[in-house]
Amino acid sequence: KSCQKPVDKYIEYDPVIILINAILCKAQAYRHVLFNTKINIHGKLCIFCLLCEAYLRWLQLQDSSQNTDPDDLIRYAKEWDFYRMFGIASFEQASFLVGIFITLWWMRPEMLKTKSDFILLLKALLLSSYGKLLLIPAVIWEHDYTPLCLAFIKVFVLISNSQAIRVTLNLNRMLPWLAIFFGLILENSVVCLFQKMGWDV
């Protein structure tokens, strides 16, 4: 019923094949993961992705990159700037999700009638942000193309979010992208607000 097929073919597939198909953003793989598996790592994945993003931003701050002594790692972990970057990344993520929910609720209120509809979509969006984990190798193997890699990671995450919305609410391709666009507008508004407050983002 959920995947609109007589049988979910991914039930018989190896998890590695499912992961590869999810990375390729195939709608059927997303349906399988969202509806026919019991994955409860949404919250942990979200926190871990936010930590990766906060670490990347913290690393890009001028004062954090001056001292690269490995013995200072414990002191670094206690720095206020890292926690500030985590808070900013959390606010941006929340505003992005709120923008998506407001747009979808405004355009198709019948799709998000119950609390369970909201929770399912939230879980789908959090799971589909797994591409942010690629920030770790981008930071570890830092090179001249790092900004380009980060841009590709952002695009990949947005494509994954679009597929998650499309699969969860059974929509066409246009409405998810519209919701993501308004989510990005709200997220960038939060970024501008932080910059006006004089915070490095």
Automatic annotation (TrEMBL):
Classify the protein's membrane topology as the record does: Multi-pass membrane protein
List the transmembrane segments.
Answer: 85-106, 118-141, 148-169, 175-194
Q: Which GO terms describe its cellular component?
A: cortical endoplasmic reticulum; endoplasmic reticulum membrane; Golgi apparatus
Q: Which GO terms describe its biological process?
A: intracellular sterol transport; regulation of plasma membrane sterol distribution; sphingolipid metabolic process; sterol metabolic process
Spell out the family assignment given in the record's similarity comment: Belongs to the ARV1 family.
Cellular localization per UniProt: Endoplasmic reticulum membrane
Family annotation (InterPro entries)? Arv1
Q: What is its main location?
A: endoplasmic reticulum
Q: Please report the name of this protein according to its UniProt entry.
A: Protein ARV
Against Pfam families, the record matches this protein to:
Arv1
